[in-house]
Amino acid sequence: MCGIVGFSGTRQAAPVLIDGLRRLEYRGYDSAGVAVADGEEIHIAKVKGYVKNLSDLTHDGADIRGLVGVGHTRWATHGAPNDINAHPHLSSDGRFAVVHNGIIENYASLRQELTKKGIRFVSDTDTEVVAHLLEVYYDGDPKKAVMRAAARLEGSYSLGIVCLDGSGRLFALREQSPLILGLGVGENYFASDVAALVPHTKNVIYLDDGEFAELTADTVTVYDVRGKTIDKPVSRVNWDVEAAEKGGYEHFMLKEIMEQPACFKATVEPRIKNDRIEFENFDLTDEELKSIDRIIITACGSAGYAGQVGRYVIEELCRIPVSVELASELRYRNPIINERTLLIVISQSGETADTIAAMRECKARGARTLAIVNVVGSTIAKLADHVIYTWAGPEIAVATTKGYTTQVAVLDLLAVYLADRLGLMTPERYSALITAIHDMPGKLQRAIDLNRGIKKLAKRLCNHNDIYFIGRNLDYAVCMEGALKLKEISYIFAEAYAAGELKHGTIALIDQGSLVVALACHEPLFDKTMSNIEEVKARGAQVLAVALEDDRQILKKADDFILVPRTEPILNPIAQVIPLQLFAYYVAKERGCDIDKPKNLAKSVTVE
Length: 608
Ligand code: G6P
Prior knowledge:
Layout: E1 3-8, H1 13-24, E2 31-37, E3 42-48, H2 51-58, E4 68-74, E5 89-90, E6 96-104, H3 107-116, H4 128-137, H5 142-151, E7 155-163, E8 169-175, E9 180-183, E10 188-191, E11 203-206, E12 212-215, E13 220-223, E14 229-230, E15 235-236, H6 252-258, H7 260-268, E16 272-273, E17 276-277, H8 286-291, E18 294-299, H9 301-318, E19 322-326, H10 327-330, E20 341-347, H11 353-364, E21 368-373, H12 379-383, E22 386-389, H13 402-421, H14 427-449, H15 454-461, E23 466-471, H16 474-490, E24 493-498, E25 515-519, H17 526-538, E26 542-548, H18 553-557, E27 560-564, H19 572-590
Parallel strand pairs: 18-19, 18-20, 20-21, 21-22, 23-24, 23-25, 25-26, 26-27
Antiparallel strand pairs: 1-4, 1-10, 2-3, 2-4, 5-6, 6-7, 7-8, 8-12, 9-10, 9-11, 11-15, 12-13, 13-14, 16-17
Bound molecules: 6-O-phosphono-alpha-D-glucopyranose (G6P).
6-O-phosphono-alpha-D-glucopyranose (G6P) binds at residues 300-303, 347-349, 352, 355, 398-400, 601, 603-605.
């Protein structure tokens, strides 16, 4: 969703804010803006489109003078993406400027109330009500105005406020939407994500819901909802600024694809000690473990597709029934859940609104919750009974790659761990799997190296209007993610079908020249998938097969192929998805798409 930043210091604020917005642009790119106070006035610059438009407009911020300010990059909810609806929004008296992430649900009634008081609104946004509430409640004490205004708001939001009061003060408020304070020397910051803070400081404070902070260049004070000062722990961010930069790659997505062997290693190795899997924060007793009679995995988007892989693997190894539920459906479904349910919540950002809501709903019904999350200190990580972090590092491209593969890596590890604890695995099988897991970074590198030529394939196939992905069992689960990658970034209609289901409808669409991507790595069902390949070929389809590198049979049948290294079957989805990510990347590149910022999408969806 939207990205917000705030800065107070002794140097010019606008260049710092614009640099911060660049690092948060993955959250939304409909418009960008800054508001900077110079002691006499709040100056605003805002413009439709990318942060680049804002930096062009302001000469990288040099045109705007002042030492304190806020910035915003928008993913539009209320009001079209244009210059007027761009944040920051200013109060009529020019004393407060506001940036906002989230939705003010009662904005319509507040707008009506304020209009009756004679206030004239200039934008269509929900956010503008906040600026005007502040002005109405201001009586010389900005902190009081902030508290009184916040008490009127319903919904989920994080707010950044600059107030023209004395030398200029900043306020940061959090209610169900991420906000992190950065503590510098002689300057302080806030942002929606640590990515915007790490160039300046690694010392951060994670605000909790209902809390707000007041920042000046030298002080940071955190208050609870009643305005009482609270002591918050200072955390250290454990990654460097280079991790959130392109490092010579043309796109973040390509860099993140290439990082996957290392991310797998970083996620998995710390959890294997003396060839035994151990989790730092998932320590159920045998009794607790045996009491679990059902696992529900809930998530959105790719995280849900990682869950689909997890379902096959956990059921296969642990013999516990697993269902994968879209969070946006689960939350409203009156789900049947009790204390014997283990809810696995998967989220790269840890901030996805639907996932959080589904989690809260299931927790309230007694489920034990285990979160698989990439962002330390995120809402989902805080809400969960247990957390296993994916150590993928910051993921900037909107389309996830390393986030997904590290989620699958954790699910694989978890399945082996649970099967062992439940006494369902021989020591020989366990140690064979541990060896295979240790070998995976090399195999993932091979999955990249085997497909160096995929660019040419992408060039040849990039003009198809629709692409069908088929597979069975784990291959089918990978199809879902492969198809999603392609549609997200290349805008080609692509959909995954269980290969055996094709004949029950979708095959009607297969025609001369239709492109079918057939995943045929799951060996127990290889012959069945081959029959499905025959079926679509008989109807004129062109088949791009994804096959194990030592498979000779498929080469005779397919028109084109992508090869992947042989691994333990439960680990193979991670190797398979890498060439599919590369395929989507190069197809999108051929089609001239904006790969890191696909249209209409945002990386972190903090609204319903
Ligand atoms: C958005 C992103 C997807 C992502 C999904 C879930 O829709 O565009 O790439 O998979 O949110 O995000 P999460 O942070 O919860 O994994």
